[in-house]
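name: query_chain
kind: protein
chains: 1
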Amino acid sequence: MLSQEIINKLLSELSFRTSRSSGAGGQHVNKVSSRVELRFDVAGSSWLTEVQKSRIQEKLATRITGQGELIVVSEKSRSQHQNKEDCIERFLELLDQALKPEKKRVPTRPSKASRLKRLEKKKQHSLKKDKRRKPDV
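structure:
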């Protein structure tokens, strides 16, 4: 959806923040900031059109803060570099999904066979209910 040129320009607008990763890990986790948080100001981006910005804000509303920043976090790896790469990859996937045009639904009619099958099922169901009734004496 986005050209490589625009992707490169968007990557220049990203800001990163690092912190200590959560969970178990012994001595290493207590001294290394390997968790990476990617932040992207959707409204302030100069490389996205207004239509693209509104689509991103609509589709990714749960991931966007009150200040209009899209946040992606990764702490999969012990390596800060790998977590940064993972954040960028996930960011580009999110943008691609948000900007992908939705398919228009083509209305279809039920086939003759499916209509007959539905009516036959209704008749069988009705007979089953009739058989449960007490006979009229």
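note: The domain at 4-99 is CATH 3.30.160.20 (Double Stranded RNA Binding Domain).
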